[in-house]
Specification:
Length: 69
């Protein structure tokens, strides 16, 4: 189990918040679309924007481990 940590300081969005938001998505093949959807749900990366790359990294990491059968 992965430990939780804050990804976006401005909006106080954590790794688990992003994982949860991704959980509700149906489309897992497009990181940028997933980013937009996660942003709508969590409002991450709507403050200073400094976490943008971090959020993208986390999303791709989660999506890659998300291979469903
Ligand atoms: S740290 Fe995420 S918008 Fe500033």
């Amino acid at each position: 189990m992965k430990e939780n940590y804050t990804i976006c300081n401005c909006k106080k969005v954590t790794y688990f918040d992003i994982a949860d938001a991704l959980h509700d998505l149906e489309n897992f093949d497009d990181v940028l679309r997933a980013f937009e959807d996660v942003q709508k749900v969590t409002h991450c990366s709507t403050g200073c924007g400094g976490c943008h790359q971090k959020v993208l990294d986390v999303i791709s990491e989660i999506l890659m481990g998300h291979e469903k059968v």
